[in-house]
Automatic annotation (TrEMBL):
Organism ancestry: Eukaryota, Metazoa, Chordata, Craniata, Vertebrata
Source organism superkingdom: Eukaryota
Presence of the UniProt keyword Protein transport in the record: no
GO molecular function, one term: sequence-specific DNA binding
Record's compositionally biased regions (Low complexity): 316-327
InterPro entries, sorted: HD, Homeobox_CS, Homeodomain-like_sf, KN_HD, PBX_PBC_dom, TALE_homeobox
SMART domains xrefs: HOX (SM00389)
GO terms, biological process: cell differentiation
Pfam families: Homeobox_KN, PBC
DNA-binding residue intervals: 231-293
Protein name: Pre-B-cell leukemia transcription factor 1
Annotated source species: Esox lucius
Domain PBC intervals: 36-230
Subcellular location: Nucleus
Residue ranges of the region described as Disordered: 316-343
Amino acid sequence: MEDQARMMSGLVGLSGLSQADVGDHDAVRKQHSLGQPQQDIGDILQQIMAITDESLDEAQARKHALNCHRMKPALFSVLCEIKEKTVLSIRGIQDEDPPDPQIMRLDNMLLAEGVSGPEKGGASAAAAAAAAAAGGSPNDGSIEHSDYRAKLAQIRQIYHSELEKYEQACSEFTNHVMNLLREQSRTRPISPKEIERMVGIIHRKFSSIQMQLKQSTCEAVMILRSRFLDARRKRRNFNKQATEVLNEYFYSHLSNPYPSEEAKEELAKKCAITVSQVSNWFGNKRIRYKKNIGKFQEEANLYAVKTAVDAASVSSQASQANSPATPNSGGYPAPCYTPDGRL
DNA sequence: TTAGATGATTGCCG
DNA sequence: CGGCAATCATCTAA
């Protein structure tokens, strides 16, 4: 009966019940002041429970006494064993997961984009070079290039500072928990193995947070890339001189406006654009000219005259007869190109 | 703000 | 693979 009362009083601190609800306070006090704990486990438990009822100094003294008790290590290991067999064994199984393939994928991508790799790495330079090669005149290209690099550097900086913050928070928290558990292991059955396991759990939690960071960084990089590498979004009209050169070629080869590979290269060099841009231009030009020859008539005449004048000036023979109003009179190919008229 | 111009892309064909 | 046709996305002049 007395034992029961002791146990009940011990529970008071934990359950929040009032002393009046569980029994005679003075009787309990008397038990506490009995001095050295008895050798049976029930007494030790009782004392552990009773700690909550005592003042801090008293509690510390009692805690120390408990720690020094010769039964303590045995009891501790038994309780740890019991705990291990029940809760932790269940948890232990699901904790053993292999390295996440998702996070490896994200890591690889960030490395490839030059975000997580070494500063100013080759990867980012390569990506920027690809951006420059993707389109636009060299001038615009270099502007986009530096803009792209700046944005990428910004993303990289945010990524690294966030990562550092997470790592710091993780290690701080881990230390805190470890200290707490070590401290509590003096009064609770917490084995080093369990502490280790807890650290593992914390690390997993933080790495899942890190994965979110990596994921959002990847997204940001993808958006950046799509914005800068999709040339359609950053289309620049060719400069006047380039258009002039291309038109000259087109109208002076109206009967067969299909420049050879060499001619394309030549034109590309003259216009400071890529060969594929030349191809695009001719493809667009042919289709649009064909669709509406009338609309291009004036332009055709203009370039016919232009070419004629150029040729005439080379032969140092004035061609006064030619004027925009009287086109196709210089012996140059008339705008006779038709869809079927491809020679 | 908007219509037309224009460079790029995509899908298909021979 | 080169070219055509349709279409997209952006630029530009009015």
